[in-house]
Design goal:
The chain is of the alpha/beta class and about 180 residues long. The chain has helices at about 10-25, 40-55, 110-120, 165; strands spanning about 1-10, 35, 65, 95-105, 125-135, 145-150, 160, 170-175. The protein has 4 helices and 8 strands; from the N terminus they run βαβαββαβββαβ.
Length: about 180
């Protein structure tokens, strides 16, 4: 198996800065926004985006995290998942523009689970999707609104996002089979 780094810390920082600007432009400012990260790595990405949005706009944006574990349709194949706490900002999500934030978009199943979880919490005015890495191979008709990097990959390859808050380093690597 060979591993190569496809995004370094500076690349991740640039991608998140661009996404923050795109979110503000799409929403016409920070009013009514709520960012919800999908654990584990979507949560720190949401925190970083909120900080960038505040730095650019001068206004704080509520941020939380949305655990989707019990809404997943693949629990039978991966029963060892541990639920994380869902933390919804004090103002809730009703009537707000919720931006779901995750690290990698692959099949779309995590996002489908997130939409189901949101439905149990409230009724947002709109839901948008911000992804650090879109690798393709969708199984569901889900498309991100904001993408840090499109990274076409083979199904056999593994995309690993490592973040300073969790892993001690910011990088995105791709691991695949050795070439013959």
């Amino acid at each position: 198996m060979s591993t190569r780094t496809v995004l370094q810390a500076s690349d991740i920082s640039r991608a998140l800065t661009r996404i923050a600007h795109e979110i503000l432009e799409s929403n016409r400012g920070p009013d009514g926004l709520v960012l919800l990260g999908i654990p584990s790595r979507g949560a720190p990405l949401a925190e970083r985006l909120a900080a960038l949005i505040e730095r650019v706009s001068g206004s704080a944006v509520p941020v939380g995290q949305l655990d989707v574990t019990m809404y997943r349709d693949d629990l039978a194949q991966h029963p060892t998942r541990s639920p994380r706490p869902t933390e919804i900002p004090a103002g809730g999500i009703d009537g707000r523009v919720v931006v779901l934030v995750d690290d990698v978009l692959f099949s779309g199943r995590s996002i489908r689970a997130a939409l189901d979880a949101l439905g149990d919490i409230g009724r947002p005015a709109a839901v948008r999707l911000a992804i650090l890495v879109d690798r393709g191979h969708r199984e569901l008709p889900i498309r991100p609104d904001f993408v840090g990097r499109n990274l076409p990959s083979a199904r056999s390859e593994r995309i690993n996002v490592r973040l300073e808050e969790i892993d001690g380093v910011d990088e995105v690597t791709i691991r695949g089979e050795e070439a013959p």
